[in-house]
Amino acid sequence: MRSSVFEIETLTVPGGTESILRGGRHLFGKLPEAFHGVRRIGVLGWGPQGRAQAKNLRDSLQGTGITVAVGLRPGSSSADDARAHGFTEADGTLGDWLAVAAESDLVVLLIADAALAAHHEEIFAVLRPGATIGLSHGFLLGHLRATGGDFPAGHPVIAVCPKGMGDSVRRLYEQGATVNGAGINASVAVHADPDGHAGDRALAWSVALGSPYTFETTLQSEYRSDIVGERGILLGAVHGLVETLYRQFLLDGADPVTAYERSTEVVTGPLARTISREGLPAVRNAVADTDLFDRAYTAAYGPAREIVAEIYDEVADGTELRSVILAGARLATRPMTPIGGSPMWAQGDAVRARRRSPAHPDLPIDPLTAGLFVATMVAQVDEFADRGHAWSEIVNESIIEAVDLLLPYMHARDVAYMVDNCSVTARLGTRRWGPRFQAAYEQIALPAVAAPADPKLIDAFEQNPVHAALAAAAELRPSVDISV
């Protein structure tokens, strides 16, 4: 990572160093210089990311002379909401998506993945010479490679990928107005740099979004780790795990509310907080029954690693991406049914009410739940490491995003709510792979918990280099209460 504008820092990680940029509002004055000739930014799309990024960019660039405009497809139902947030046709900040693309120096493509796969050629055709193409997901690269396409020559291609949901990108940006450093971490990638300024533009974009720190990746690594992660420990595996544990605790004689607490509430609450504040080894130290944690960990690691590897292969060869594109037309007439109506999720309100009761003691970390969860998280970490991902990317995609953002969000609103309200790509992946994780936990891991723990696997966990990588990254994370 290089910059002629921003001061780049070095992060020491296992096996070497990586470059990062520490963000902050004190850097906003450097944005016009860093954007290098960009006078108009067109944000195409008004989904959660489009809405958040357009507003953050506009607010950060206020008074700089750089205009942020929103482009929507004709007849878009989002137009009224965009107007309500201050983007209007009258001042030239709201318009037809192709017109906005044609008028912009940086075109940020934030329409849905399936729609982008279907319409990218129309957008590319109207770009002004040398305009920068901006992405917040590498999905399009995977699609282009699978179909023999490519980005148009002569255009810088950059990515800034916030490691969290669009609503949180905006909410934590607003929190950052009073809490220095609050925001969502982001990765940046420079895929094409014909004019030599793409890297600075990517960093400027990340700073303007409010990223506390920005780490470097490639467009290919980003979409692989992102799509695998959301099908793994970020969402799909969590859904499969808590469904499994809820049923298991019921079979063991727990009442429904207690079963929900020991599964979902433990994962989204004390388990996530412990990892966030103290790291993964602290979980093992915190449980009352270390032997049960060890047996659960060693029973789940292998099955979880197998599924993560399978997901990775299907993302890498385009299978998972094609499934998202195929779903695009189908979902236009047959929307996905929600999962939140199952009996398990009916316990959530009672658990949250009990959580607020002064008479209710702090919930301990259940060793079975913790062992299965930590094993799955480490399995994803190890798979990413073996596939050559950088440590900054690994700890963000597999740990920080989970424990500092997504799990607290689920704690406030529920896992089922998260599944039913996330992006189409993530929702499709969760519905496909969550049941696979559930089957592996029920059919392979839980029966194996009765066997003695594998000391080699426990030693590998204790010596895992991810602990050092996470500790290094944690030094750069702001100590704030995340706004959910």
Automatic annotation (TrEMBL):
Residue ranges constituting the KARI N-terminal Rossmann domain according to the UniProt record: 21-217
Q: What cofactor is needed? A: Mg(2+)
Q: Which UniProt keywords apply?
A: Amino-acid biosynthesis, Branched-chain amino acid biosynthesis, Magnesium, Metal-binding, Oxidoreductase
* Pathway, per record: Amino-acid biosynthesis; L-isoleucine biosynthesis; L-isoleucine from 2-oxobutanoate: step 2/4; Amino-acid biosynthesis; L-valine biosynthesis; L-valine from pyruvate: step 2/4
Which family is it part of? Belongs to the ketol-acid reductoisomerase family.
The protein's name: Acetohydroxy-acid isomeroreductase
| Domain of life where this protein originates | Bacteria
Q: Which residues bind Mg(2+) 2?
A: 226
